[in-house]
Amino acid sequence: MKLLKLIYNPVSGNEDFTESLDYCIQRLQSLGYLVSLYRTEKNQELTKAFFDIEKLNYDGVITAGGDGTINKVINLMKRYNLDMPLGIIPAGTSNDLAVHLTIPYNLDGALDVIAKDNIKAVDLGEIKGDREKFFINVCAGGLFANVAHQTDRRFKNAFGKLAYYLNGLTEISTFEAVPLEITTCETVIKEEVLLFLIFNGSSAGGFNNLGKAAKIDDGLLDLIAVKNVSFNKLPALLVKILQGSHIQDENIIHCKSDYIKVELLDDSIDDFRVDIDGEEGPLLPIEACVHFQEIKIFTP
Ligand SMILES: Nc1ncnc2c1ncn2[C@@H]1O[C@H](COP(=O)(O)OP(=O)(O)OP(=O)(O)O)[C@@H](O)[C@H]1O
């Protein structure tokens, strides 16, 4: 038998994964996997999840949760140097990484992907710092960027992605563009922006086409930034974003690089925080780089 660690978040999405836990274990056992369970806790590192890693040889780790849970698991795997494939059961609110990898949202579909044993190596983003922080999908800052981790859990559980959009709308009237310097290996851009996203995947906050040009296994990050357009132009731009035709828009900055630095050009702003895979990240300035095909994932 093979051994799997299943790390599940009981409150991700609409909190219903635990109802399927027994079925999930039954299916994994029927595929020849023994399953060791770990339940996540609020605001806690997952260090205890692999307390037995020295004694047992795991063949893979499965996450059941949203992007925040996947992010925590990946950071843990990096810290302990765990080189095993990651399976994803999308049980979160927006499940942006699963969308990018076309992993089905329904449990049977996600388990079928694991059953196929088709493993793909994907890139991993890193925010450099005293303690490195990895991201698998996106690192973002500005308008809407902090909505995912600032939205109340009960609101998310009840309204799903709609909770993000409603919360985001309340930011529009008060948000001011920020002057940024964006440096890549190839270029330096100085611009007032409303929002920037550094994509490894391509979907953010349920906007599946936002990072449309990004590939998760090309050794590059994609920067998308929205220039300081007046708010009355935002609806038209949003429509383009939904259609995936925004990349060439004059109000969008898009570039690809394996190194992206983002700094504030206004010293009076000292609290500009980024969001990493839907979780709270560090303050600007940040330096992002990418590790080519660093993580193995069960994919369709
Ligand atoms: N047992 C728990 N009780 C309350 N909160 C928890 C628990 N376990 C984890 N969390 C919190 O859940 C958050 C991660 O949620 P996750 O991102 O997986 O789901 P989501 O926000 O519904 O989905 P998505 O990120 O895809 O939109 C973390 O901030 C973590 O602190």
From TrEMBL:
<dbReference type="Pfam" id="PF00781">
    <property type="entry name" value="DAGK_cat"/>
</dbReference>
<protein>
    <submittedName>
        <fullName>Diacylglycerol kinase catalytic region</fullName>
    </submittedName>
</protein>
<dbReference type="InterPro" id="IPR005218">
    <property type="entry name" value="Diacylglycerol/lipid_kinase"/>
</dbReference>
<keyword id="KW-0547">Nucleotide-binding</keyword>
<keyword id="KW-0418">Kinase</keyword>
<comment type="similarity">
    <text>Belongs to the diacylglycerol/lipid kinase family.</text>
</comment>
<keyword id="KW-0594">Phospholipid biosynthesis</keyword>
<keyword id="KW-0443">Lipid metabolism</keyword>
<dbReference type="Pfam" id="PF19279">
    <property type="entry name" value="YegS_C"/>
</dbReference>
<keyword id="KW-0067">ATP-binding</keyword>
<feature type="domain" description="DAGKc">
    <location>
        <begin position="1"/>
        <end position="131"/>
    </location>
</feature>
<dbReference type="InterPro" id="IPR016064">
    <property type="entry name" value="NAD/diacylglycerol_kinase_sf"/>
</dbReference>
<dbReference type="InterPro" id="IPR050187">
    <property type="entry name" value="Lipid_Phosphate_FormReg"/>
</dbReference>
<dbReference type="InterPro" id="IPR001206">
    <property type="entry name" value="Diacylglycerol_kinase_cat_dom"/>
</dbReference>
<dbReference type="GO" id="GO:0005886">
    <property type="term" value="C:plasma membrane"/>
</dbReference>
<dbReference type="GO" id="GO:0005524">
    <property type="term" value="F:ATP binding"/>
</dbReference>
<dbReference type="GO" id="GO:0004143">
    <property type="term" value="F:ATP-dependent diacylglycerol kinase activity"/>
</dbReference>
<dbReference type="GO" id="GO:0008654">
    <property type="term" value="P:phospholipid biosynthetic process"/>
</dbReference>
<keyword id="KW-1208">Phospholipid metabolism</keyword>
<dbReference type="InterPro" id="IPR045540">
    <property type="entry name" value="YegS/DAGK_C"/>
</dbReference>
<keyword id="KW-0479">Metal-binding</keyword>
<dbReference type="InterPro" id="IPR017438">
    <property type="entry name" value="ATP-NAD_kinase_N"/>
</dbReference>
<keyword id="KW-0460">Magnesium</keyword>
<keyword id="KW-0808">Transferase</keyword>
<keyword id="KW-0444">Lipid biosynthesis</keyword>
<dbReference type="GO" id="GO:0046872">
    <property type="term" value="F:metal ion binding"/>
</dbReference>
